[in-house]
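Thread: quick sanity check before group meeting

JM: Hey all, I'm pulling together slides for Thursday and realized we never actually wrote out the predicted structure for the chain we discussed last week. Dropping the sequence here so it's in one place. If anyone has concerns about the input, flag it before I start.
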Amino acid sequence: MKKDLKSLSDLSAKEIESLFRKATLLKKERKRGKVRGTLRGKTLAMLFEKTSTRTRVSFEIAMRELGGDAVYLESGTTQVGRGETYADTAKVLSRYAHGILIRTYGQGIVEELAKASDVPVINGLSDLYHPCQILADLFTVGENKRERRKVAYIGDGNNIANSWIQAALLLRFPLVVATPHGFEPDRQILEVARNQKDVSVIITDDPVEAVRGAAVVNTDTWFSMGQKEEEEKRRRFQPYQLNQKLLKEAAPDAIVLHCLPAHRGEEITDEVMDGSQSRIWQQAENRLHVQKALLEMLLK
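JM (edit): ok, ran it. Output follows.
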């Protein structure tokens, strides 16, 4: 039976732990120059409706280093751009490729594609979730030995915030999310979190409260793809800038994460992004290793 990754809730805690063990091995092998052929003869169809750097490059290289191939499809150059349904597209791609990656807007598109596809579907990003990114983030946290310590997210309650909440519920670590009023994470996701009595997920509008004592401090751009950059929103988010003053509220050994691309001088300062506590480039690199492990799990 095929397995999809529409959001982190498609994985169990044990599956995530297994995924990270495999990613650790793959990362070590790559540094030694060892290349696997575990996906030889396999092809990943990658359908992109949003621009990308890390998702596209990491998945393409992952498939090649595992011995497989990837086909990049921009929606505007496919029949989806002319009105073909995602279900029909999934049925066709299922007969060509061994897996489908989708980077899109509505989560409903991911769900429709997965329902109609006979092969695994991977959510490379939707407006609601970004599971591949959070898997790499969690792996980075584990490499820095900060498991089950407080994680803070500050900024927009977007797909990154939503996926961090899912991660906290799955892996049982304390999470505090700080957003301005009106920019909180998805209501349904928050409702699920409220019903989990044994997990601490706190939503606040106070960035200092969120960061205080945290072992992991992460943020994201204030403007998601497709959103108009409004000066009023920029002003309201200014207190949520991850700068050196705010970072001092965190634990002395705290690490800083940002999923990229960063708008330097807005949600994060150069001093923090390029500072000694930043693990942002390690985090970006880990997209490749974790996604290789994910592809082996789903396509092998």
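AS: nice. Residues 280-299 form the longest helix (20 residues). The mean pLDDT is 95.
JM: adding both to the slides.
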